[in-house]
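task queued by scheduler; priority normal; single chain, no ligands, no partner chains; default sampling; output format set to C-alpha cells
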Amino acid sequence: MASRADRAARFERAHSARLPLGANGVIPGAEPLRLSASPTHAVLLLHGYNDTPQSVAPIASMLHAAGWTVVAPLLPGHGRDLQYMASASRGSAWLSCARTEYQTLRASHTTVALCGLSMGGALCALLAAEHQDVPALVLLAPYLGMPWRWQAGVALAWVRWLFNPYVQGSGGERSIHDPVARARALGPGVHTAHTLTGLRAIARAAEQRLSDIRSPTLYLQSKEDNRVRATDAIRHFRMIGSTVREQHWLSGCGHIITADYCKDDVGRRLLAWIDAHAGLPSKET
C-alpha cells in the first residue's frame, strides 16, 4: 500500500506536469494583473478560491479599455505548486492580501471600486463592510456561507488528510461551459483540508457581514451555477444592507462567469454599474 508521502508525490507530479512553473515560480498566465490607466479611478478585482487572475482577465481588460486602473492580485497559496498551496493558502492570508491591496490603491487613487468572483466576492463583501464609503461593489457569483453538505466535505477532508494531504476536486468541468475557456483555466482542481477550512471561514464571515454593506451593490449570478444554489443567491442578496442594490441573472454559463460564454454581458453590466456609482474615470495625464 502506498504511503501518505507517495500519494502526495503523485498529486504533485501530476500537477507540475499539467501546470509547470515559470522562472518566477508562478504558473505562466497566473501572474497578478496591474493595468494602469486612470490616476484617480481604480478597481480592485479579486479572483476566486483555487483560481488565478487569469479567470478574471477578460473583465480586467474591459475595465482597463474603459479607462479604469485595474489591480487583480494573485492571492496567497494560488498559482504555484501544490506544496506552496498546502502551506500558504489560508483564509487569514487571503483577507490580509485583499486589505493590503485595497489600502494601497486607496493611497494612490481617490476612487476605488470593488469587484470579486466567487470567494473573491466574499472578500470584497468583507472589505465593503469594513469601508462603507466604497462607491461601488460588484459581486460575481459570490461564495457566501457554506451549505451543510459542503461543510461535511470539509470534515471529510480532514479525515482524508491523515492518509493524503490532497483532495481531488469534483465538478470543475461544469464551472465553465465554454470548452476553449475551460482548457485555458489554471486552477489546480485539488484541495487540502486547510484550504477548504479557509474557504469556509471567509464565506461564513462574509455572510455575517452582508447587512453591514452600504455601498451600491450589483450581484450577478448564473442560473446554471454549479457552486452556488439559486436559493442561496436570492437569500444572500436580500441580506445586503445597501438600499441601492440590483441582482441580475445570467444564462448559458457556469460559476466562472468572468471567463465563460457570458463574460461580455458581465463586463458590460459591471462597467455600467461602477461608472454610474463611482463616476467615469479621468484620463491619465
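post-processing summary
- The longest strand covers residues 111-117.
- The chain has a mean pLDDT of 94.
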